[in-house]
Design goal:
Strand order of the largest sheet: 1-3-2
CATH architecture of the largest domain: Orthogonal Bundle
Order of helices and strands: HHEHEEHHHHHHHH
Shape: globular
Mean pLDDT: 92
CATH class of the largest domain: Mainly Alpha
Largest sheet: 3 strands, mixed
Structural class: mainly alpha
Number of strands: 3
CATH topology of the largest domain: Arc Repressor Mutant, subunit A
Length: 200
């Protein structure tokens, strides 16, 4: 395949959010944190395969194959509890490719590390950026549903009982991201972005 000629279709944020909500509701009870490994292995019947030195050799921590059978994950990242929130997001990101890019990504014929390395070398940067941005949004919507986020944010604010009017919204969201990231089991960065996307 000539990766230089790839054109990634535009998918709007609302369509990405609907796709994430649909997948979550299809496989899970409405509860947090989202059981991403259950969605992958039980719901979608995709194998999660730890691979030695994957991050070091390929430069990414997870990779879904174009036949949708396997997600390779760096073995050290997989076994490190300190990295579990980041890894959950990476797994959800790969499922974003499965849901959003099934037609185009299936044609990439990525089955090995070498296939991915060639793909990442040859695909135009802007097209790769579109793929990754859409998959990141999907992961965020899947793991941090807006309704749950609003509810949990209100619970924390009720416990704090302090006036934060003197703090700008971005700083305030960074503060809230710390406890909320523990509830949703995502990184503080992912939570800050989700909070910044909420409409007050």
């Amino acid at each position: 395949m000539n990766y230089r000629k790839i054109s990634v279709p535009y998918i709007g944020s609302s369509d990405i959010e609907k796709a994430a909500d649909g997948l979550r509701k299809r496989f899970l009870k409405e509860e947090i944190p989202i059981d991403i490994e259950g969605i992958i292995e039980i719901g979608l019947k995709i194998n999660i395969i730890p691979a030695l030195d994957f991050l070091k050799e390929v430069g990414i921590d997870t990779l879904i194959t174009s036949d949708w059978k396997n997600i390779y994950v760096d073995n050290d990242e997989y076994l490190d509890d300190r990295r579990s929130n980041r890894l959950r997001f990476s797994l959800a990101h790969e499922i974003g490719h499965f849901i959003l890019h099934k037609d185009i990504y299936g044609g990439f014929k990525i089955k090995t590390r070498e296939d991915f390395e060639r793909f990442s070398r040859e695909i135009p940067n802007n097209q790769y950026g579109y793929l990754e941005t859409q998959a990141n949004k999907f992961a965020r919507y899947l793991l941090i549903p807006k309704g749950f986020l609003e509810t949990e944010k209100k619970k924390i604010l009720a416990r704090i009982k302090r006036d934060f009017k003197d703090i700008d919204q971005k700083t305030f969201n960074s503060f809230l991201a710390i406890p909320l990231s523990e509830v949703f089991r995502v990184s503080e960065d992912a939570m800050s972005i989700a909070l910044n996307d909420l409409r007050d």
